Amino acid sequence: MSSPLIIGHRGASAVAPENTLTAFRLAIEENADGVEFDVRLTKDRVPVVIHDDNLRRTGGVNGLVAELSLKELKAIDVGSWKDPAKFRNERVPTLVELFELFEGSSSTLYLEMKSEPTQREALARVCCDALSQTPLRRQVIVECFDLAGIELVKAIDAGIKTAALFEPTLRNTPLASSAKRMIDKALAVRADEIALHHRLANARSVEMAQSANLNVVVWTVDDPSWISRATSQAIKALITNNPSIMTQHR
């Protein structure tokens, strides 16, 4: 049985400012098999790597990504919030800059589209266009909670690999019924994988997804005990904030 891929959640975000080139470099130095990252559009429709829709938490600026130009966004320090002595003047990377960082590597890249309804189509088209121009295309899996975004990606380019993201929002629903509902939704948008919050990744849901020919990815886990569990269940990948700890135990 193969060990799961270890994927750095927003890079090595436990120790470096999330979604920065430094965090991505560190994840690879820590022997991660790849990284997960978030993509949004700036005011001038440039795809950039940032999780939140605003800069309050990571940049200390009350500004929306969608209302800032790339030039304005690049003027904001998104590293000092983590540790000003180590990470001052980190900047939000563009998607192209991230692809350039990983060019020539064998890393697996999970691109999460932060799809707002008003930007859904524009974001999907921009991400597909970026993938058409990078040699990393086959190493990228586009994921999204907004399954209409996944459906759009497949309509634009059926060859792009996708993952349907799910978090534990279903309540008072029988276990098998919840798993079937998620799997049916993933299959309906032609997803290749299903990315489950760790609380949803029980043995039954994993088995049902695999029976439907969906690879299973689990997020976000920092407990090394998941390595043996994922290996025994043939889970494809574990997304973690701390790839160093996880890679040391596989």
**What is the CATH topology classification name?**
TIM Barrel
Q: Count of helical segments? A: 11
Query: How much helix, percentage-wise, in residues?
Result: 25-40%
Mean pLDDT: 96
Looking at CATH, the homologous superfamily is Phosphatidylinositol (PI) phosphodiesterase
Outline the biggest β-sheet: 8 strands, parallel, barrel
Task: Tell me what you see in this structure.
Helix content is 36%, strand content 19%. The protein is of the alpha/beta class and 250 residues long. The protein has one domain: TIM Barrel, CATH 3.20.20. It has an eight-stranded parallel beta barrel, surrounded by six helices. The model has no long low-confidence stretch (mean pLDDT 96).
Quick overview of this protein structure:
With 250 residues, this protein is of the alpha/beta class.
List the helices and strands and how they pair.
Layout: E1 5-9, H1 21-29, E2 34-41, E3 47-49, H2 56-59, H3 70-74, H4 84-87, H5 95-102, E4 108-113, H6 120-132, E5 140-144, H7 147-156, E6 161-166, H8 175-188, E7 193-197, H9 203-211, E8 215-219, H10 225-232, E9 237-240, H11 243-247
Parallel strand pairs: 1-2, 1-9, 2-4, 4-5, 5-6, 6-7, 7-8, 8-9
Antiparallel strand pairs: 2-3
